[in-house]
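Sequence in, structure out. First:
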Amino acid sequence: MCIRKTDVFSPAFIHQKDNTIRMHEDSLERDTRALLEQLLHERFGSQVQLVDATVANRLEDYVVLLATLRHPSLEVVIKLAGPQAPYPYPFERTALFHRLVATHTTIPMPEVLAVDVSYQAWPWRYLIKTYLPGQEWAVVQSQMNHQELHHAYQQIGQAVAQLHAIPFPHFGEVDPDGTVPSQEHYLSALTKRAYQRIVNPRLAALFLRVVDDHLDLFSDICQATLCHEDLHGYNVLFRQAQGRWHLSTILDFDKAWAGHQESDLARLDLWRGMVGEGFWPAYQAICPVADGYVQRRPIYQLFWCLEYAKLSPEHVADTQHVCKQLGIEPLAHFE
């Protein structure tokens, strides 16, 4: 499974001598740019200047910017999501996960400088965080030799395990204060999650029928942990320093919840290039993997296939392979 690029945070910043803003690859509408400058003045003071900005990702009513500020001198990532954005983008919850990961793991994490989801003063939800340089794992793994790959997979395994070592008292969506108000068992939380994330009701019902047919496999799942749910090759960054590759950061906790570690592991197993020699020993040194994982794995993978639901030949083939493992009729389309 190949994942398309989403938020891209690795391009080099390009500076210019004067104080005017310059957009690369794409441009912001004039009124959005003016509002953004007002926001920056409010958050960083009247002297702040927006020197450079690169549109790294744009969807409907959603944009990610890589920006260089002056007074103070900062390189930042700015996310803006309006009411018509394709996903709720709970930035206040993302900020919580950043703090948790920074506090409880050795993973380098950007500092969240400002966040607001109220729409009270601005026409979008926003998150502003410091920029951490790095290159996407999907890009750099082809540049590594066997020894470097082994070491990189060790780092990924250790980082993912550290995420999964962050516990929650219950399964479900996490509030911005870190509480999980639902206090549900895993299957109840998973059912709600399926209806939220699998847009097509027919596909959501299909997934839940598969779960119902395998209820016995989930009887021993009782510990909720931080589950990222989007650990693909463009959300794991590496940087090269003194001739060695180091994990730079993990991006995009917008979909994270108090779930079960196996959901992340199943997606990593499905997505090409995410698990390799060195990953599992490093992971299991911190987080053991239950014997029942292999049986549950295709069920978690079906969730992803139906959530993503793209008609590319590769995705259809992967979905049909998962269906075959589960003994259900292969899907030819996602309507």
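Second:
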Amino acid sequence: MKEECLICKAPLEYLNEDIEMECELCHKKEKSKTRCINGHYVCNECHMQGTDSLIGLCLNETSGDPVEILNRMMTMPFCHMHGPEHHVMTGMALLTAYKNCGGDIDLPKDLLEMNNTLAGLPFRGQLANAFLGATTPRTAGFCVADMSSLTSGTLMLTLILMIIGAAPMSTGGGLKVTTVCVALLTARNAARGKENVEIRKREISRDTIRRAFATIVFYFCWLGLAVWLLSVTEKGASVFTLTFETVSALSTVGLSLNFSPMLSLPGKLIIIFTMLVGRIGILTFFISFSKEYKKKNYTYPQENILM
């Protein structure tokens, strides 16, 4: 690793205070303390363009030793002393070593996000933001980064977490983790041909299973209706953006892709009413409009429907 200028290979100098400099590559002006002795300055964005090679190295790496992986990174030609690429190298090496030792993570997605919105943070800051970013879609609504700048993989994961939601007996929204758990176990039992749903030596009642599937059906029915209405009122908006905004409202999360302020008046009313339904509870909302069923003393013959 050499501490040298990317433009002229001259040594770098460190000033006592920030002064405005212009990047020699993209000509962006910003304040910094670092330049070469010939006055050349390269911004962090241009300096880190070579980090795509770091991702390629990590994806092809087989070692489980993070120190060994980090040493290979430091031998790459674009890696310079005190360069901004060091903000991501340690985290990349640890993630890669963890994956190679049997860790259950999506390494390409995690590496891309580390090199995206979390690139300017030290590893401890990246770890803290990653944990908060995984918790906040459950209904917290604290935005750890500009949501519109996240990669598509991270946005999709956030969308799934918003749909699942929080645990029951809390102020959180979404389907609830128990509802999703019961539905998944029921689906697994259907695939295995097993009739009863059991968790930790306890059988789940049929009424609970019916309520879980009713909640999921009503949730996605409302979601589909709201997204369809928004696609009519918000011309030119992508379906994913509309879906993200609607799920955030229905699950009472509060995250946004910076599209909510640009909604038309009908679109804002749709989102507001969706928030209200999500706060009441999707199943409670639909039950309130249904007549109470009076139990009958007879049953009809059963019939199997072709699925």
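Remark: The chain has a mean pLDDT of 80.
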